[in-house]
Design a protein that fits this description.
Layout (H helix, E strand, L loop, with lengths): L3 H15 L8 E6 L3 H13 L5 E6 L1 H10 L10 H12 L3 E6 L11 H14 L1 H8 L5 E5 L3 H7 L5 H15 L8 H22 L3 E5 L5 E6 L6 E2 L2 E2 L5 E2 L2 E2 L4 E3 L1 E11 L4 E3 L2 E3 L3 E5 L2 E6 L4 H7 L9 E6 L5 H5 L6 H4 L5 E5 L13 H7 L7 E5 L6 E5 L5 E6 L2 E2 L2
Parallel strand pairs: 1-2, 1-3, 3-4, 4-10
Antiparallel strand pairs: 5-6, 5-20, 6-12, 7-11, 8-9, 11-17, 12-15, 13-14, 15-16, 17-18, 18-19, 20-21, 21-22
Helix pairs in contact: 1-2, 7-8
The structure holds zinc ion (2 copies).
One zinc ion (ZN) binds next to β17.
Length: 410
């Protein structure tokens, strides 16, 4: 059994450092019913911090799967008005959003990919305005993991259910620096400082392109937007309040220039998308567009994912993560992006984060012209390896090593 005091410290960390919940602010928590005990700890901590109200959005993997298999077909094209209004209402109150995820990577395997795609399109429409506010950090949000039995058994198949859940808790707590000895909150302050300093160095260079190469066969040129910004660690919401959107986070990221990515890229880890596992993914890109997408397994799901809309076949994120990050040193495949993306350099196809200087004062049109991709989807895929090299290219052609052997050399 995991010591309750460690879970308590994790709950505090999410409320105080993660969302940095302010007095009188509502908190919307998404959580699986299986993890109600931990959600209760978070809610109690939130009220202690002066939360106005904790609003729960419960879900259940069993019911989600039942719905995809058995619900009336028309359901998957519906955009419920109440859902739109739900987010509008709480965004107006400047609520903080916490997603406690416990993803079973195989929950939706065997489900009709068309149903998944149609549901992604209609829910994308329903939550479009809210997602924009979230991705531009207008409202504070945080994503963090909590083990479920199925997820734990996927990660640790040889352990009993109880042992697997304990082992996954231990791994999760390590990734968020809760060790029961040092203060996790203090460790996060130091970590955030370090990430910011690498981001600032890269911002100083203003590379025109990054060149990625490794022995898997990746050979990709990624153009960056003019006046791009590298970000990492923490964000500031519309009121200027700091929050940490992903716990854990080890990445420094920016937005690629939509039409300036060329070459071949191979994934270095399986990608778990909508409950299906996509293995040995390979993309060929021309003038930014994914013109060839193949995978050893899950290829059909992958092809659907990059055709949800026009922007889904262009990149929206380039993130650098040292190969020697605490998460990759654990050597565990979590089958989930929140963890696995922080173990390796990655890209995402779909919506770009507005990582531009003065992004907040730019219109959507201006952001588009600057080269930011637009889509209702955003899917990370891992490409970092032990032998990855990333080279920054300045407008005059000068090549500056950014990463060698998977780690920062800048
Ligand atoms: Zn990322
Ligand atoms: Zn991402």
């Amino acid at each position: 059994m995991i010591d309750a005091s460690l879970l308590q410290e994790y709950a505090e960390l999410l409320v105080r450092t993660g969302m940095n919940l302010q007095e009188g602010q509502p908190l919307v928590v998404a959580c699986q019913v299986e993890n109600a005990p931990f959600a209760r700890m978070v809610a109690t901590e939130a009220y202690k911090q002066g939360c106005r109200e904790v609003i729960m959005r419960w879900s259940d993997d069993f019911l989600t799967r039942e719905k995809y298999l058995k619900a009336a077909d028309a359901v998957f094209d519906e955009t419920p008005a109440w859902l739109v209004e739900f987010f509008e209402e709480y965004d107006r109150h400047h609520a903080a959003y916490l997603a406690l995820i416990s993803p079973d990577p195989e929950n939706l395997s065997g489900v009709d990919p068309m149903r998944l795609q149609r549901a992604a399109i209609s829910s994308g429409k329903a939550t479009r305005a809210h997602s924009k506010r979230q991705m531009s950090d207008e409202i504070p949000w945080c994503v963090a993991g909590v083990p479920s039995v199925k997820w734990a058994k996927k990660v640790f198949p040889d352990l009993s259910e109880e042992e697997a859940v304990d082992a996954l808790w231990q791994a999760i707590l390590k990734t968020v620096r809760v060790d029961g000895i040092h203060s996790a909150a203090d460790a996060w302050e130091e970590h955030i400082k370090k990430l910011s300093s690498v981001a600032e160095k890269l911002n100083g260079y203003q590379f025109e392109k990054l060149h990625y190469e490794n022995s898997l066969g990746t050979d990709l040129m990624v153009g960056l937007c003019k006046n791009h910004r590298w970000e990492g660690g923490c964000s500031k919401d519309g009121n200027g309040v700091r929050f940490v959107a992903n716990m854990p986070t080890e990445e420094i990221f920016t937005s690629p220039k939509k039409d300036a990515v060329d070459g071949v890229v191979y994934a270095s880890m399986p990608l778990c998308h909508h409950g299906s596992l996509i293995e040995e993914l390979k993309f060929v890109l021309k003038a930014g567009k994914i013109v060839e997408a193949t995978a050893k397994s899950g290829e059909e799901v992958l092809k659907k994912a990059i055709t949800v809309d026009e922007g889904a076949s262009y990149l929206g994120e380039a993130a650098l993560v040292p190969y020697d990050s605490p998460i990759s040193n654990l050597g565990i495949l979590f089958y989930n992006t929140l963890y696995d993306e922080n173990a390796a350099c990655h890209f995402a196809f779909g919506q770009a984060y507005p990582c531009l200087q003065n992004a907040s004062s730019m219109s959507e049109e201006e952001q588009r012209e600057a080269g930011l991709n637009e889509s209702d989807t955003h899917v990370d895929f891992m490409i970092g390896t032990k032998d990855l090299s990333v080279t920054g290219i300045l407008p005059d052609g000068t090549r500056i090593p950014v990463m060698r052997e998977g780690n920062f050399v800048i």
